[in-house]
Amino acid sequence: MMKHCVTCLATCCLLGTGALAQGLGGPSSVQADLEPGDGLTDPQYRSDFPNNIAPGYFAWKERLAKDHGFRFNLDYLALGQSSNADIGTGNASGGIARLYGNWQATENGSLTFKIENRHAYGSVAPQNFGFDGGALSITGTAFNDNGTMLTNLFWTQRAADASWTFQIGQIDVTDFVDVYGLVSPYTAFQNLAFNTNPTINAPNPGLAIAGGFQLGPNFYATASLADANADPASPDLDVFSDGDLFKSVEIGYTSGFDRVYFDNIHMTFWHSDEASDGSRAEDYGAAFSGAWFINNTWMPFLRAGTSKGTAALYEKSVSAGVGYFARNTDLAGIGLNWAEANGISGSQKTIEAFYRFSISPGLQITPSIQYIDDPLLDSSQSSITLFGLRARVVF
Predict the structure, then answer these.
(1) Which residues contact residue 66 at a Cβ distance below 8 angstroms, ignoring those fewer than 6 apart?
(2) β-bridge mates for residue 99, sequence order
(3) Residue of 36, 67, 78, 372 with fewest CB within 10 Å of its CB?
(4) What whole-number distance in Å separates Cα of residue 364 and Cα of residue 347?
């Protein structure tokens, strides 16, 4: 059984009656990060850390949620990676400090916020480590050195019967565009090939509007309109003056709206305007995603995308793999990706495998390995192997 934390809405979607708690979102969204245990009922853990060292603080958080509808977390994530690449630094590391939460202001309306600081420990951040070693690959998604950013500050309004959801404000469209149950770089795969589809030229968090609608008991449609030039380190309203926009539409099927990112098949169509200053070319494309949670244990997935390829990382991409939800809410995953890039001959193949040890609701340790065959940026290397270790602590 899944509890209502499935309202994380992995596919920019809305849930059914009784489950639409917070609106649009996915496994990497604030809604998901506020819920422990991947939405699994009665999870078992190895420890109660850090709750056991500050019981008064966590009791206070629970009272805030119960009495005032205000929930928040502080968390810190760290990622270190090393590789055997013939070029580059050979290692990269960085961290992310985040404050995020949600205030249920009215019965059907809520305010979501997230402030974060992303930083590198050394000269190269994990997000750029693949490029540094000669691969056209983002090997540490989200672990960049962009500094302090406002990534979420938006209002959600939803129908009392959960038939529609609307959001407006500072939004990260990668929280809901073309996502599935293993999309989060904070809790699952680290390589962009298995996160948001790498053929989609998704913008940085910025001013956006988004909505979702139920189309019967199993089908849904969603859409978004966002600032294609957004800079969360310096948020503004310039989208209204320059008109450079990112647009997306998604049509999907789910076994039930209480399992929307566990059982989901969808198509996503998107378009990004050329930047007015010429710094970014027009791009557009389509993506397919299918994932199904078998016996609440196995999640096989197949994802593919194609784009004009002028601004997205890849022009064509196909990914397949499986996740295994183990005891103690541990999570194992393995994925394989094939990709081609615009203007570069040949194809690049990527394999990633990881095992997330869930020590407690507030502590996770995730070792991983990535193997990149025929790296597109350095044809002199036949392959690159990367080892990674990610940690997350939640207060």
Answers:
(1) none
(2) 74, 115
(3) 67
(4) 34
pLDDT tens-digit profile of 375-390? 999 999 999 999 999 9
Amino acid at 279: S
User: How do beta strands 383-394 and 70-83 pair?
Assistant: antiparallel
d(CA 97, CA 278): 33
Kindly state the tokens that stand for 175.
Answer: 């929280």
Cα 337 to Cα 157: distance, rounded to the nearest angstrom: 37
* 62 Cα distance to chain centroid: 26
* Alpha-carbon torsion (303, 307, 312, 314), positive or negative: positive
CATH architecture for the domain at 4-394: Beta Barrel (2.40)
Query: What percentage of the chain has pLDDT greater than the value 70?
Result: 92
Which has the closest alpha carbon to 291: 260, 249, 318?
260
Q: Which two tokens stand for residue 70?
A: 């205000």
Contact at 8 Å (CB) between 160 and 108?
A: yes
What's the alpha-carbon Rg for the chain, to the nearest Å? 20
**pTM for the predicted model, two decimal places:** 0.90
Determine phi and psi for 237, rounding to 5 degrees.
-110, 25
- Name the nearest CA neighbour of 39 among 16, 74, 77, 9: 9
Measure the CA–CA gap between 395 and 304, rounded to whole angstroms: 36
Q: How far apart are CA 230 and CA 374, in angstroms?
A: 33
- pLDDT above 50 (res 127): yes
